[in-house]
UniProtKB/TrEMBL annotation:
Alphabetical list of SMART domains matching this protein: AAA (SM00382)
Positions of the ABC transporter domain: 10-251
Species the sequence originates in: Lichenicoccus roseus
Record's bilayer topology term: Peripheral membrane protein
Family: Belongs to the ABC transporter superfamily.
Record's protein name: ABC transporter ATP-binding protein
Localisation per UniProt entry: Cell inner membrane
């Protein structure tokens, strides 16, 4: 990213856990910058660190090392009260809208709460803003008196989105916000997220495993494997001509609607079960080494993250000689 200062930034961020006496890595040396008003998607297989990255970016989780900056301010250095004040600007939309809404609060209370917590309204004054927000996300203002269980999955996700944006945040992390919804509802929610971005000038970090959706919705995609970012660039270019062999594998695993094309894709992809066949990673090596058809002795060392085109970067030794 070049030009203006980023809205949000992760610099040298790592997350380590100790489980049953063994050290494991959630994130390794993550450098990521998000420009204001951008939509940056994060893709990768389950357990690659996508959700951890989203939580650390919002400082819902403390990194083991590195800086997490919002508008240039390192969130990791803030005291709890200072961090609470910054929370209004940074919100999250979760995968499961049922779990993310409080079943005992009415929709009106659910939406008013962020306004009250951040000092933007008192409970009794919040009603007009709640009604306007419900209309904004395609729901009748009258639903404010009802409870989450009275709504469909798509409606609940609209409510969860309304709750995330009612206090007018700048940065929203959406963690698989569509994966619990059926296809027709997914399209409606994508349109809603896009229109909210335009009117509220939102910046999205969009965590997804749905590559066609990412291509449609995001202006930039980062590809993660085993806690590392290994490719970064515009989705059209990254998915059309992947620079990293792992991205190529991910793209080859996307089903296509035409049966003949799908058979050809499966034949070309070979044994796609390799996507779930990762060995315990060696953190000094390329994280894809055990599965990569191009692995070389040098791949025992982690390759640098380098430009492979003016707006694209990848971490793979195949690009070091070019
Ligand atoms: Fe494959 Fe080596 Fe590139 Fe890793 S660095 S993706 S193992 S060629």
């Amino acid at each position: 990213m070049t030009g203006a200062a980023p809205l949000a930034e992760m610099a040298g961020v790592s997350v380590r856990y100790r489980r049953a006496g063994r050290l494991s890595h959630g994130l390794i040396a993550i450098d990521l910058q998000l420009a204001a008003n951008a939509t940056v998607a994060v893709v990768g297989e389950s357990g690659c660190g996508k959700s951890t990255l989203g939580r650390v970016l919002l400082h819902l989780q403390q990194p083991s090392e590195g800086a997490v900056r919002f508008r240039g301010e390192d969130l990791t250095l803030l005291k709890r009260a200072e961090l609470r004040r910054r929370r209004r600007a940074m919100q999250m939309i979760f995968q499961d809208p049922f779990a993310s809404l409080n079943a005992r609060m009415t929709i009106g209370e659910t939406l008013a709460e962020p306004l009250v917590v951040h000092g933007l309204a008192r409970w009794r004054d919040a009603r007009p803003r709640v009604a306007a927000m419900l209309e904004r996300v395609g729901l009748e203002p009258g639903v404010a008196a009802r409870y989450p269980h009275e709504f469909s999955g798509g409606q609940r996700q609209r409510i969860a989105i309304a709750r995330a944006v009612i206090a007018e945040p700048e940065l929203v992390v959406a963690d698989e916000p569509l994966s619990a919804l059926d296809m027709t509802v997914q399209g409606q929610i994508v349109s809603l997220l896009a229109s909210l971005q335009e009117t509220l000038s939102l910046t999205y970090l969009f965590i997804s495993h749905d590559l066609p959706l990412v291509r449609e919705f995001a202006g930039r995609v980062v590809v993660m494997i085993a806690g590392r970012i290994v490719e970064d660039g515009p989705p059209d270019a990254v998915f059309a001509t992947p620079a990293h062999p792992y991205t190529k594998l991910l793209v080859s695993c996307v089903p296509v609607p035409d049966p003949a094309q799908e058979r050809a894709r499966q034949a070309a992809a070979g044994n796609t079960s390799t996507i779930a066949a990762a060995e315990a990673p060696d953190h000094a090596a390329c994280p894809f080494r055990s599965r990569c058809p191009h692995a070389m002795p040098i791949c025992a060392t982690m390759p640098p993250f380098r430009h492979v085109a003016p707006d694209r970067q990848a971490a793979c030794w195949l690009h070091e000689s070019s």
